[in-house]
Amino acid sequence: MLDIDVQLRRGRFERHVRIAEDARVLALTGPSGAGKTSVLNAIAGLVRPVSGRIAIDGRTLFDSAARIDVPTHRRRIGYVFQDARLFPHRDVRANLLYGRHGARGDVASFELDAVVDLLGIGHLLQRRPANLSGGEAQRVAIGRALLSQPAILMFDEPLSSLDQARREELIPWLQRVRDEVRLPMVYVSHTEDDVRRIAHAVHVLA
Ligand SMILES: Nc1ncnc2c1ncn2[C@@H]1O[C@H](COP(=O)(O)OP(=O)(O)OP(=O)(O)O)[C@@H](O)[C@H]1O
User: Fold this and answer.
1) Which residue, by CA, sits nearest to atom 6 of ligand 1?
2) Residue whose CA is closest, atom 29 of ligand 1?
3) What is the CATH number of the domain that holds 46?
4) If you take atom 8 of ligand 1, which residue's CA is the nearest one?
5) Nearest CA to ligand 1 atom 16
6) Residue 126 Cα to ligand 1 middle (Å)
7) According to the model, what pLDDT value does residue 105 have?
8) CA distances for 16 relative to 52, 79, 202, angstroms
9) Alpha-carbon distance 95 to 88, whole Å?
10) 205 C-alpha vs ligand 1 centroid, how far in Å?
């Protein structure tokens, strides 16, 4: 499903990354500075590899030899960050609808009502982000990502800004998204516990 063979360079950081993984839900782990976020950003088209190839489910996003570099907005990436990055002056509903796309071709489309039900956020729709817990804000961020009609979901340490109790609350929602939307997922984390509970396979960037 995920086929990456790239040379990455970020300032003085340079490394070759090769990931060929059939598992639908892949965790990416490794020490701080190993390049986990850089790999996500390369998949998203936010960092351009020096050379190599990136494909998801057989769809080529980047191939330096073939001069393919699909622009970020056409890569259909749902990206969830450490912090929810919601617009503070808009309510939850407006945040969810920001960047929403309709159905594309024959691809199944995520609709607002279904996403709200999936993530249990119906009672939060009128609230501003300042009035959400960290875990609630992350559920809204996941909903926003789904409504952009992604072909893949990427999570960059989505639990790391939460305390232990909020982490425990969010994990079942992540499992629910994993099991019900059935998209490919790349899940970056430092911690073994959530990786074990969420991912089907683990790739360690040493
Ligand atoms: N814009 C940049 N300019 C220069 N160096 C960068 C830039 N972005 C990242 N780096 C460097 O690239 C390396 C990999 O960073 P990256 O954020 O991908 O690692 P990471 O594994 O995600 O780390 P962490 O777990 O701490 O988030 C680091 O050494 C970092 O300092």
Assistant:
1) 10
2) 33
3) 3.40.50.300
4) 10
5) 35
6) 37
7) 59
8) 9, 23, 18
9) 9
10) 12
Pocket test for ligand 1, best of 7, 10, 47 (most atoms within 8 A of CB): 10
Cα distances (Å, whole numbers) of residue 95 to 133, 147, 174, 191: 15, 10, 19, 29
Ligand 1 neighbours by CB, cut-off 6 Å = 10-11, 13, 30, 32-38
Domain count, the chain: 1
ipTM score: 0.91
- Structural domain for 70, as ranges: 2-204
Q: What is the pLDDT of residue 90?
A: 96
Spans of the chain, pLDDT less than 50: none
pLDDT of residue 4: 97
pTM score, whole prediction = 0.93
